[in-house]
Specification:
The strands form 2 sheets. The chain has a 4-stranded mixed sheet. The protein has a two-stranded antiparallel sheet with strand order 1-2. It is built from 5 helices and 6 strands; from the N terminus they run H-H-H-E-E-E-E-H-E-E-H. It has 173 residues and is an alpha+beta fold. The two termini are 32 Å apart. Helix 1 packs antiparallel against helix 4, helix 2 (23-30) crosses helix 5 (130-148) and helix 4 (91-105) packs across helix 5. The longest helix has 19 residues, at 130-148.
């Protein structure tokens, strides 16, 4: 019997969740469970709607699939924009998510030189460089390995378990 998972490729949100806890992508891919939209997620989606005449960019490649909030063209190249309605105490998750979008999209969206993350009132712009891409590609490979395995990975920092929606499915919580 052939078993086809709905997560046969990596998405930026799986990588972002991996940074929170490696068990979450496994639960999402293997138990086919996703956190329902919360009130703050709905508010964030509404607040981050693109202006009239502009929209999100959906890209699917052999490496994965991504939805980029916005791409702007400047004289020195393109900038991928990742928008978040609210700040996070762990901004690195947003960086990994945005760079994962770049890694997935780069074959169909050449000329990207920067990633801009707007989270609440905080705006961070990063030059896309080889080291940053290598670091995120290592995380992508880790997520690819995790979602393809039949056994659970080791959890991240367990101090987060009490606030994790996935704790009801997690044997470590």
């Amino acid at each position: 019997m052939i078993h086809i998972k709905p997560f046969d490729r990596v998405s930026p949100s799986l990588v972002k969740e991996y940074y929170y806890c490696p068990v979450i992508p496994w639960i999402q891919a293997n138990l086919m469970v996703a956190e329902p939209m919360t009130d703050s997620m709905a508010l964030g989606s509404e607040a981050m709607k693109p202006p009239t005449g502009r929209g999100q960019v959906r890209i699917s490649t052999s490496r994965g699939a991504t939805i980029i909030d916005e791409v702007i063209e400047e004289k020195n190249g393109k900038i991928i924009i990742e928008k978040k309605a609210f700040k996070s105490h762990n901004f690195s998750r947003y960086v990994s998510q945005a760079i994962t979008s770049y890694v997935i999209a780069r074959e169909k969206l050449p000329g990207v030189r920067k990633v801009r993350i707007a989270a609440g009132s905080k705006i961070v712009e990063l030059e896309v460089n080889d080291q940053l891409v290598r670091d995120v590609e290592a995380s992508i490979r880790s997520v690819e390995r995790i979602i393809s395995e039949s056994s659970l990975p080791k959890p991240g920092a367990q101090g987060k378990c009490s606030s994790c929606w996935y704790r009801r499915f997690c044997p470590y919580a």
